[in-house]
Amino acid sequence: MPPSIGYLLLLAVTFSAVSCNSPSVPNNDTVNPKEPALPLVGTVNLYDQPAGELTQTLAPGDYFQLSGQQSADLYWRRTGADTLLEPYLEVLLADSSRHWLYADPHYFDLKKEAEQWQWNNRLRSILSPDQWRAYQQLQEQWSATTLHTPLLLLFQATRKLRDELETALRAYPRLPLVAYETVLPGCLAYYHDNNVAWWIDFNQWHQRAAEQQAVAEQALFNFYATKVYPPDGMEYHYPAWQFPVGANQAHSLLGRGQHLKLLHALDSLQQQFSFANAEWDRIRDHLLQDLTTQETTYWEPWSVIDSTLRLVLTQELLGLSEFERERIILHQERLRQQGEHGPQFDFRNR
Fold first, then answer.
1. How far apart are CA 338 and CA 312, in angstroms?
2. Helix, strand, coil: what percent of the chain each, to 5?
3. C-alpha 27: how far from its chain's center?
4. Rounded to the nearest 5°, which phi and psi values hold at 216?
5. Residue 75, C-beta contacts closer than 8 angstroms, at least 6 positions apart
6. What is the secondary structure of 38-68 as a DSSP string?
7. What is the pLDDT of residues 30-57, one digit of tens each?
8. Can you say whether residue 341 is alpha, beta or left, with left for phi > 0 and alpha for psi between -120 and 50 degrees?
9. Nearest alpha carbon to residue 156 among 191, 185, 136, 180
10. 197: how many CB neighbours lie within 10 A of its CB?
11. H or E stretch including 101?
12. 199-235 burial, b if ≥16 CB within 10 A, otherwise e?
């Protein structure tokens, strides 16, 4: 039976991660039916709890079985040239006793599946059981020839999960960048402020939409790739209507015609592809922030900003409500009080 839309949207539930500096309480919610043991390739230590006291060791050939329960936290270890960030796994021995071992991939004969095995373990510890199952569904759907769930919902679930993972993983030491590359579909991993993050690659999402003949999603992802994040189609730090002067600062390019052109384009696309209304509204809200937000700084001088704001207010725009018009007028008056040489204008000449 195809996964339901609501099932995939479980990814949108907020989760949290606890500190990796102290032993974590076992995640009782992750108990699954007993799993077969993986072949050991060396002697491993067993503990009474995650990061607890050593109880005994296991050697290749010794009987044990994975219970399916994991620690609710990830733990950092340095092994040779490898930086590990893994949970503890509960094991059952022949005498029915329970112990914990660190999920070091070097302990087991994993063939070519070591990276997938590691991330499955990590995410099962960080995510709730429902989120983990939904994540599996997302990966399966992305890889499937034919989708059983609208691509737009997969995209929104991926973006939500991306945002939550970026927050949760800040609690842990970072791994080499290559370790994060395959975690999220249609995304590119990078480091930002010494933490891992992911840019959405709208080219991949557009290609997937074309393969599925999903017309609304094709229009949406093409707009993101060519109008919001040109020329590469990657969700870099700032959209095309802002001029970046650093990783954490940009000035609005209001006054160069982009904002009004894009607002008209959004009106047209929203009439044609109402299925993606939430995304069109999201992009429009981002655009309007440059026209309404008090903290916005501008690349152009006040005379250009003022004339542009007045021009926008004369336009018949479906997405420009009376409330938004009032916000623009208020912002315009606030800027006017600064005078021609106000601190928020003309950064091009500073």
1. 21
2. 45, 20, 35
3. 23
4. -65, -45
5. 20, 50, 51, 85, 86, 87, 88, 102
6. PPBSS-EEEESSTT--EEEEE-TT--EEEEE
7. 444 456 568 899 999 999 999 999 999 9
8. alpha
9. 185
10. 19
11. strand 98-102
12. bbbbbbbbebbeebebebbbbbbbbbbebbbeeebbb
CA-to-CA distance for 47 and 321, rounded, in angstroms?
Answer: 62
d(CA 7, CA 322): 37
Q: Give the orientation angle of helix 215-223 with respect to helix 277-292, to 10 degrees.
A: 20
Average pLDDT, the chain: 88
Q: Where do the DSSP E strands lie in 204-303?
A: 242-246, 249-252
Instruction: Characterize 81-95 residue by residue with b for buried, 16 or more Cβ atoms within 10 angstroms of its Cβ, and e for exposed.
Output: eeebbbbbbbbbeee
Is residue 345 pLDDT above 50, yes or no?
Answer: yes
Q: Cα(174)–Cα(180) distance, rounded to whole angstroms? A: 10
Strand order, beta sheet including 54-58: 26-27, 64-71, 88-93, 98-102, 44-47, 54-58
Q: Which amino acid is at 130?
A: D
On the 0-12 / 13-18 / 19+ scale of CB atoms within 10 A, 344 is middle
Helix or strand (DSSP H, E) at 157? helix 151-168
Contact 254, 308 (CB under 8 A): yes
Would you list the domain boundaries of the chain?
5-200, 237-349
Backbone phi and psi for residue 145, each to the nearest 5 degrees, phi listed first? -70, -40
The model's pLDDT over 212-247, given as tens digits with 9 standing for 90+, comes to 999 999 999 999 999 999 999 999 889 999 999 987
Number of C-beta neighbours around residue 5 at 10 A: 13
